[in-house]
Request: fold
Amino acid sequence: MAKVRVELEKERAAEANKQIRNVATANRNEIPKLLIREGLITEDQLRYAQRVHAKLTSHRTLLSILEELHYVTKDQVQEALRSSPVSIPLGSLLVELGYINEADLSMVLDNQREHPDAKFGQLIVDINLIDENDLLRVLSYQLGFPYIDPAIAEVDPKVFERGKIENYIENKFLPLHYQKDGILVAFADPLNNEQVNAAKKIFGSSIIIGIAKERAILEALNRYETKGLVADKGAKRLDSNDNAVVAAVNSILQEAHKQNASDIHVEPLRDKLQIRFRKDGVLVPYKEFPLDMAPGISSRIKILAGADIAERRRHQDGRIYFEEFDVQIDLRVSIYVTIHGENIVLRLLGRQGELRRIDELQFAPRIMQRFEEEALDAPSGVVIITGPTGSGKTSTLYSAINHLNNPNCSIITAEDPVEFVLDGIAQCSINPKINVTFEETLKHIVRQDPDIIVIGEIRDRFSAEMAIEAALTGHKVLTTFHTEDSTGALLRLLDMQIEAFLIASTIAGILAQRLVRRVCPDCVEDHPLTPDELRRLGYTSKEGSGLVFKRGRGCSKCRYTGYKGRLAVHELLIPGEMVKDAVIARKTSHEIKRISSQTTGLVTLLEDGICKASQGMTTFNEVIRQLPRLDRPRPLAEIKRLLGVH
Ligand SMILES: [Zn+2]
Reply:
């Protein structure tokens, strides 16, 4: 019986791998092949990049590696794609360009199989996997039409006035200006012959077809219809001291804080200043200001950030501590010069009041208890919080520091940069510009006689060695890492040539984490899983019979996404003797994972996700999209027992 099961598992794993490989390789090298054809890279360079790619454990695109090796620039890639459109399916192109990962792709393809009428592009935008603008950009690569943003594109009045605006609106196109071979016209659907012919009737058969968002085309046309083409030249420019400007900036900062945004984007466009907030990872439009307020608003932000107000041609950064009434906000500011002016992004940093207590991080009860008792409260050793970018590991790290912070112990940090400011802790921001490097800082930290050392991130062999050495001399070390799961962190350390024996004797605990979206409480409904959905989770129909998750129907409160807020999913590995032996014996990742599951009470990310979905906190789609599905999950009752969930 057991043997049959093992065979089945093997078969499953092989099948899953094959599928991933198929999706991944069938079309993956189309862009690099194109780059070779265009003479931008050589075969040798591609082979080298492929070798690097194969060695990396994290999800990186081959293209990003080619860029990092300086074989080719982003601009060259875009130019090549534009000049000779490639014929790969949109989904694969999105993967190759790094907009989505393979798990996302297979989820959407599955979804499309269930709804054969749905367009791939629409589906992928609807489930928030990609911004509509980015999708259009990729479509333009695929179809070979230039991508146009009507809000900033140049419209030549002489061209525009050749036709009637009603005609433009009816056929959803926007004429722009002369280019060397004809007149550039932006279409919402460049494949619609009727609309393209309508434009050709007015502008001649040699028009250059561009692609733009339908809404943006119509917005631009409506604006020209009401205001005319020429902007009001007489409007006065407001400066940074103007009351309207000060009030506008204050209200943007306060509103972002109130709405719990993580970033504020201040974006000058051709005819307006656009403010957007990033909430739960998604950029949402907040407000638009007339263009004459733009210089004042950007100067005001620069003054607050301590940046050079006279400098308008170079990128700058700064920091704002904003305080008004009972609102205090700490922001990191990045000013980036674009062709339309200064693009400003403000990241709202957490403050102590907002720092979440460790028991508010949605840990399952048993995991919470073990993380505190066996990892954080252990007298010494390295505690690693691991996950990809955007997995919320920094917030968890800070909550852990806060948990350990008391007057009797000395905590010192080396971070790049400091993101939360904590009372009573010596925090140091790495700043290579003034020669405060990671190496220098870590050397000095140990001499400060701390009890607890926080290393922002293990990024190379040097920082890994420092962490281990500090633990060996009786310190407790907290740090983050960039790996897929908990056992992956052990293997990465081995890959960094850290002695297996040292890893086994110093790692106190590894917490892997992911963020998933939370079901909107206002439109929640039952979601009984179909046999096919159970299969995708790794359950047989029998094992999962009667399993009911929740999902959001979509309502005005959640902007029809069905989601509101996010929560963390965890996987905690407390290495026991058997795991330590396996590391020293340099067993494979699969073996180490199996031993961890069987001997340490490890519950995988997938299993914790399934449990949280069964409690109605997140959805089937989020579990499938965000969590690695390497092993079959155990039955729900077993998972709940291990997690201490009743
Ligand atoms: Zn809702």
